[in-house]
Write a structure and sequence with these properties.
Number of strands of chain B: 13
Shape of chain B: elongated
Strand order of the largest sheet of chain B: 3-2-1-6-5-4
Helix content of chain A: 25-40%
Largest sheet of chain B: 6 strands, antiparallel
Radius of gyration of chain A: 13 Å
Number of helices of chain B: 9
CATH superfamily of chain A: Response regulator
Number of strands of chain A: 5
CATH class of chain A: Alpha Beta
Oligomer: heterodimer
Strand content of chain B: 15-25%
Order of helices and strands of chain B: HHEEEEHEEHHEHEEHEEHEEH
């Protein structure tokens, strides 16, 4: 971004558990950003192939489907390097995150997600 | 132990083949490999054994020799530089078929060893005595041996023979101990993984409960109650993290207090004082949830609601017939507190005390809120 104004981020939420996904969507919208939903990593890839306006992918790690959140983060790093990735899981620590990825432990507060997004918007 | 003459022929003890179909040699090698000892670095426990053997038998050389198919490898050695030799230079391999001592008073006079290059060559080995290393299942995986460069027509004394055999048993004891330690470490690793997986699922469940509450209570206008619920859920989640550090068996009270307070205030706003002690899972969760309620109140109307206020959390154990844990909460530098804030759920949780013991002594006053919570030590440490 060239201007000092925070960017209006479009965030793709990838989460198989619907209640958790809707909570994330609320948190993103309350923080003033725009949310797009996917229920697993395969669907997320389809969304990313279809549209070019996604700035951030906020994804669970353990999900059904052909790839998990870590593999999704890897794919994004290679195919859409401009997209920021935030991963979340119930694990206490995530030692092997792809570089440039941030991590939120579940359960997370809406404010934690908002500050991660604000940090990206202000880059 | 059967009595045998010092000189004996190989293969005299095991005339029949083993019932499980594997050859004696295959079972022997499997037992040796099972110890995972080959090519490991020297260890004091084994070094001590060869030093004692060499000393007691007054020989320059003593070895713990483990005999593989193509070589013999020395786990411990004194008086010899190499850590292994090819099998054709092995005298120890001659002793693998009997559980008795193998004693060769003059290696140049024995048809089995006269051609050995360690006997005929520069090394000049002359006298050999070895005690077989017999595993609990009866496999012979090598020898504890002592070697001299001069022949010994009289062999070993009775005492020396007994010591050599006893030390050979100690080699096996050491090997078995290594196995047991490795097995325990493996179990511990598996237990840790299982705990982490359980914790992962628990966290996901908490996140699901949080999401359900979030969606279900969306239209609720009483937002304070919704926030209070989410805060309690986060306090519970944080307490689980602390319990996981010790695989859910116990938690240090200090860690529980530090972790619980960190959710509410920076470290310089509270003072923690108490002897090192552990809590059981139930006690740890109880302390964490109690501290959460107390800290929430302190942030709202107590010492943590003003910039100069601090909270002192301390504990002590009263040792008598039924040891008791006393947990103190003292607020300082905060506003004057008239009395209990409300009859809400938070107050009920505080009145429940530690592990539901209901032993709570609260003080309100101009100096700030103070409380002492007491519970039987056995209850807070219950596993």
């Amino acid at each position: 971004m060239v201007s000092g104004r925070p960017k209006q981020l479009k965030v793709l939420v990838v989460e198989d558990e619907v209640f958790v996904r809707l909570m994330a969507v609320d948190a993103i919208e309350e923080a003033g950003f725009c949310a797009v939903e996917a229920s697993d990593a395969d669907e997320a890839i389809t969304v990313l192939e279809d549209r070019s306006d996604i700035d951030v992918v906020f994804s669970d790690i353990k999900m059904p489907g052909s790839i998990d959140g870590l593999a999704l983060a890897d794919a994004i790093k290679h195919r859409w390097p401009h997209i920021f990735t935030i991963l979340t899981s119930g694990h206490l620590t995530m030692p092997d995150l792809p570089p440039g990825t941030t991590f939120l432990q579940k359960p997370y507060r809406a404010t934690w997600l908002a500050s991660s997004l604000n940090a990206i918007a202000n880059v | 132990m059967t009595m045998t003459s010092p000189l004996r022929m190989p293969d005299q003890d095991f005339a029949t083949s083993p019932p499980d179909g594997l050859s004696i040699e295959a079972r022997r090698l499997a037992a040796l490999l099972g110890y995972g000892i080959l090519d490991t670095p020297p260890e004091q426990n084994f070094d001590d054994i060869v030093h004692v053997a060499a000393h007691v038998c007054a020989t320059p050389i003593a070895l713990v020799s483990l005999v593989e198919q193509e070589r013999q490898w020395f786990k411990a050695r004194v008086g010899i530089d190499v850590c292994e030799t090819p099998i054709n230079q092995s005298v120890c391999s001659l002793g693998l078929s009997s559980k008795d001592l193998l004693i060769i008073p003059d290696l140049t006079a024995d048809s089995r060893t006269v051609g050995n290059t360690l006997v005929s060559g520069e090394t000049n080995l002359r006298f050999y005595a070895g005690a077989p290393l017999v595993t609990p299942s009866g496999e012979i995986i090598g020898m504890l041996c002592i070697i001299d460069v001069a022949p010994r027509p009289d062999g070993l004394t009775t005492e020396q023979k007994m010591v050599l055999q006893a030390l050979a048993r100690q080699v096996i004891v050491q090997l078995e101990l290594r196995l047991a330690v490795n097995a325990m470490q493996k179990l511990e690793t598996e237990r840790k993984l299982l705990n982490e997986e359980m914790s992962h699922r628990l966290k996901n469940t908490l996140a699901l409960v949080q999401g359900m509450a979030n969606q279900t209570l969306k239209g609720v206008t009483e937002r304070d109650a919704v926030t209070a619920f989410e805060n309690r859920l986060m306090a519970l989640s944080s307490a689980h993290d602390i319990l996981l550090q010790d695989s859910w068996t116990s938690a240090h009270l200090l860690h529980v207090v530090e972790g619980g307070m960190a959710l509410h205030a920076p470290r310089n706003r509270f003072v923690i004082e108490g002897p090192d002690m552990t809590l059981g899972p139930r006690g740890a969760l109880s302390v964490a949830m109690l501290l959460h309620e107390l800290a929430t109140n302190a942030v709202k109307h107590g010492a943590l609601s003003v910039s100069a206020g601090t909270v002192h959390v301390g504990w002590q154990i009263e040792r008598d017939d039924n040891p008791t844990l006393h947990l103190h909460w003292r607020e300082k530098g905060g506003p004057s507190i008239e009395g209990p804030a409300s009859g809400g759920f938070g107050s009920k949780l505080i009145a429940m005390g530690l592990c539901g013991a209901r032993k709570v002594n609260e003080n309100f006053g101009p100096l700030g809120y103070e409380a002492v919570f007491s519970a039987p030590l056995s209850r807070v440490q219950e596993s």
